[in-house]
Each structure stands twice: as C-alpha cells, then as structure tokens.
C-alpha cells in the first residue's frame, strides 16, 4: 500500500518551490512513521513465531519420550491432547517449518505403535494441518490451495475407480474368486475407502470458510 502511495506521489508532479521542502518533509515523516510501525509489528510477530518454535521443540521431545500404558484408549487421548496443544501453539518462522514434518513423523510412529486405524490417524493429523494453514496470514491462499489439491485428488480417485470398474467388464464369464478379478475388486474397495477419506477432508476444510 505504501509503495503505491509513494509511486502516486512521484506521479503528481511538482509543487511551488516555496512549499516543496515543507511538503516533502511532511510526506517523508509520514512514510517513516508508517515503516517504523510496520517493522515493529513484524518484529513482534517474529518473536511470537520464534517462541512458538521453541515450545514446539519442547513438545516434540515430550512426544518422542512418551510412555504408553496398557489402556489403548487412554493412550490415544493422551496423544490427541498433545496434538491439540501443538495446534494451539501457533505459527513458526518460515525457515523453521520443517518441525511440522518432524511432528507428523513422530505422531505416525505413535499411532503405528498403538495400532490406530489409518484413516482415523490421518484425520487427526489433517486437522492439525488445517489449523496451521488457517493461521497463515495470506488471505486464505493456503487453504484455497489445499482445497484445490483435495478436489483434484477426489477427481483422480473417481477416475481410477471408473477405470477399474470398466476393467471388470473383461471378466464377465469369470468367477469372482478368480485371482485377477479378486485383485481388481480389492483395488476398487481400496480406492473407495481412499475416496471417502478425501471427501471427509474436503468437508473439514469447507467448515473453515
């Protein structure tokens, strides 16, 4: 915005010489005031991001050393509580976003250890991802990109299902227990489950608009 104002200032043209210095000093003072406030705001935001990164590092260490009990449900709730804490810690600096990948990898390992349903685990992580995207100060561009990506995946999976179902037409006189037919049917079921997961994700992201 200020860049445009400065550009417009140059386009306005000259003013009487007797007023030139006075007006220029006033304009320069206003510009300096604006940029000083802008830099102060950014510095404050950077402090918050760095603090969030430090807290996420600590939480990641806690997750890596978590100990499970004999109660699977209780342990799952413990992980979910940590995931919710992670979501509420906020954004980290752009050059520290790698910690999100480390977090997902650690959570994956914990879910695997607990033998949690893959789709349930995926949705827990996805909701965390949405919180991160929704906190980005980019006028929903990150969410828009994610929504477009999910819609594209839905179309791709639908196309794959249609192709597999068309392939079954070549086995009209073959028993269902035929290995090839069974493989195609298994693939169709697999893709339908995947489609359901993508649609669930799309529903979740729509709730944020």
TrEMBL record:
Alphabetical UniProt keywords: Coiled coil
Residue ranges of coiled coil: 116-208
The protein, known as: DUF349 domain-containing protein
Native species: Jejuia pallidilutea
């Amino acid at each position: 915005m200020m860049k445009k104002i400065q550009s417009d200032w140059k386009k306005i043209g000259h003013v009487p010489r007797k007023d030139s210095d006075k007006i220029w000093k006033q304009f320069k003072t206003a510009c300096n005031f604006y940029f000083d406030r802008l830099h102060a705001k950014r510095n404050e935001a950077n402090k918050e991001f760095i603090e969030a990164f430090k807290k996420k590092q600590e939480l990641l260490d806690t997750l890596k050393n978590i100990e499970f009990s004999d109660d699977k449900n209780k342990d799952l709730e413990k992980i979910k509580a940590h995931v919710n804490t992670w979501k509420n810690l906020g954004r980290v600096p752009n050059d520290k976003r790698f910690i999100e990948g480390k977090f997902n990898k650690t959570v994956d390992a914990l879910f695997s250890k607990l033998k949690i349903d893959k789709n349930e685990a995926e949705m827990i992580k996805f909701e965390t991802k949405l919180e991160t995207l929704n906190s980005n100060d980019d006028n929903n561009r990150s969410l828009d990109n994610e929504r477009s990506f999910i819609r594209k995946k839905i179309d791709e999976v639908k196309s794959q299902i249609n192709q597999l179902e068309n392939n079954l037409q070549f086995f009209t006189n073959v028993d269902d227990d035929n290995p090839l037919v069974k493989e195609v049917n298994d693939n169709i079921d697999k893709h339908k489950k995947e489609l359901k997961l993508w649609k669930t994700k799309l529903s979740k992201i729509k709730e944020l608009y």
